[in-house]
Every structure is written in C-alpha cells, then in structure tokens.
Recover the amino acids of this structure.
C-alpha cells in the first residue's frame, strides 16, 4: 500500500511538472507570435510613412530623372535622361576600383567623364564609398571632382527596402573648391534579378543650402 502511495505521488508530481512546462512553452510561443506581429506592423507602418513622405515631396519636384542599369558579368552599362539631358556609361572593376566612362549631352555642352570608385565599408545594408572623377567639357572649364557616397538599404517588409543615399561633392576648379550635394530617399522593390527604386532627391549648394527637388527612378537588372 505504501508503495502504491509513493508511486501515485511520483506520478502526480511528474504530471504536474509536464503540464507546467507545456503552459510555459505555450506562453513563450504566444509571446514570440505577438512580438513578431508587432515588429511586422512597425515595418509596414514605417513603409507607409516613407511612401507618404516621398509622394508629398515628389509633388514639389522641379525636375524628373530616370536611370537604367544593366549588369552583365563584370560589366556595367547605364543610361539616364533628365529634362532634355542624357548620358550613357560603360565600366568594369579593376581590382578594388570600379572604372567607368561616361558620355553626356548636357544640352548646352558635351562632357566626357572618367570615374574611379572604391569602397571604404561594405556591409549587408550599408556601403560607404569614395569617388574621384575627371570631367572634360567641350566649351567650359574641365575639372576634377571628389564625392563621398553612403548608401543605407535595410529591408522593410518582404521585397521592400528602404533606400537612402547621401552624396556630398567637392569640385576643384581654378576659382577654388565648390561644394554641392545630391541626397536621395526612396523605396526599393526587389524581384528575382531586377529591382526598381522610385526616389526623391534634394540638391544642395554651398553650406548645404537648398537648390532644388528632383523626382526619379532607378531600374537595375542583372543579365
């Protein structure tokens, strides 16, 4: 009889422990589900806020610009048109440096440009680069220009990514160094081997003063 009582007590204790563990596991699962749902809602809300801001800013845009890029193995080809101006580019990477050539019709002048770009930082959603370029014009002063390029592209929700690009630039001319900037904010949609990014750009002048707002798109495909 005593043995039966002891066995019953052991069984009751083990059953109680098992039920408590199941209760804890269910609570943890529910907690994780609620946490994941909260994170997803936050990402969707951020996406909607950014889209709303971009559309409201694009309504004030003074110009539009559209960029098309194709990557074939190690080669890169681009085309851009912007309010009566256009350019084409071709380039490849030589060691750690990307070398690109550009022919541009600037409406009032023709430009031949050579660009040298290298990376300081390369992470999953953050790149920091430097670029030195020589701009040769047919009817005005040719000069060198340096720019600092920072891109931040974290995932927001499924195929949607934030697109932030910061580009301060310094042109070295006979009259001295001239500063300007091209900073962009947009949303990238990625699908298989292509992606598209509608964006709003703020052009700045000396001292980061406001110059103009531009609405545009980037389209890129890997072949």
């Amino acid at each position: 009889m005593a043995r039966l009582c002891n066995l019953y007590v052991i069984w009751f204790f083990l059953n109680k422990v098992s039920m408590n563990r199941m209760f804890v596991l269910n609570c943890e699962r529910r907690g994780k589900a609620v946490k994941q749902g909260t994170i997803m809602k936050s990402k969707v809300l951020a996406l909607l806020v950014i889209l709303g801001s971009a559309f409201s800013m694009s309504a004030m845009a003074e110009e539009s610009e559209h960029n098309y890029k194709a990557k074939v193995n190690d080669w890169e080809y681009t085309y851009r048109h912007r309010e009566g101006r256009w350019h084409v580019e071709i380039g490849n990477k030589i060691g750690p440096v990307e070398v690109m050539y550009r022919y541009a019709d600037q409406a009032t002048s023709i430009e031949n440009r050579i660009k040298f770009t290298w990376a300081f930082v390369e992470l999953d959603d953050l790149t920091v680069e430097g670029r030195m370029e020589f701009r040769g014009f047919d009817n005005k002063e040719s000069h060198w220009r340096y720019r600092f390029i920072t891109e931040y592209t974290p995932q927001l929700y499924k195929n949607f990514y934030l697109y932030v690009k910061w580009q301060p630039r310094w042109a070295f001319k006979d009259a001295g160094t001239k500063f300007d900037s091209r900073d962009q904010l947009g949303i990238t949609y990625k699908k298989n081997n292509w992606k598209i990014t509608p964006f709003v750009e703020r052009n700045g002048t000396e001292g980061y003063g406001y110059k103009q707002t531009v609405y545009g798109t980037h389209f890129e495909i890997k072949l």
